[in-house]
Input
Amino acid sequence: MVKLFVRFAAVALAATFATGSNALALGRDPGLPNPVATPGATNARVTQATIHSTICVSGYSSSVRPPESYTQKLKYHQLDTGYNLRGDTRASHYEEDHLIPLEVGGSPTSMKNLWPEPWNTKWNAGKKDSLENTMHRLVCSGAVLLATAQRVFAANWIVGYQRYVAS
Output
């Protein structure tokens, strides 16, 4: 099943990158994913009504996180098929990340929610992690609705960082 999924993903990514549609070509900040390849995807089990039995339970994210064997294989493939920053395909320069984080109900395995997020940019995985923690806390406390938190990441997590973390 995973092999078939990765094979399907390979075809989809190759089609996406054959057009040269990486973040820089689209005029987007290199800390943002390609919106065509990675628009974000949510976990149908996580809803506003279920947050206190899913994402707000200690250990939830680790219970749904896909194995590293899956994400590493995907990251190498994405980097090799053009999902990289200025031709840099060194895997250690990226974190395979969920656009909509598991902490706010992102899909664990959907190709629409995973991308090689660069470390060597101003807006990198470390800054996004800060926003993930903040949004998780706000959703679980009831200060922000789950759907709002998910939109923050799907729309432009950098704007979300500036609003919720940097302000």
The beta strands are 94-98, 114-118. Confidence is low (pLDDT under 50) at residues 4-21. The two ends are 44 Å apart (CA to CA).
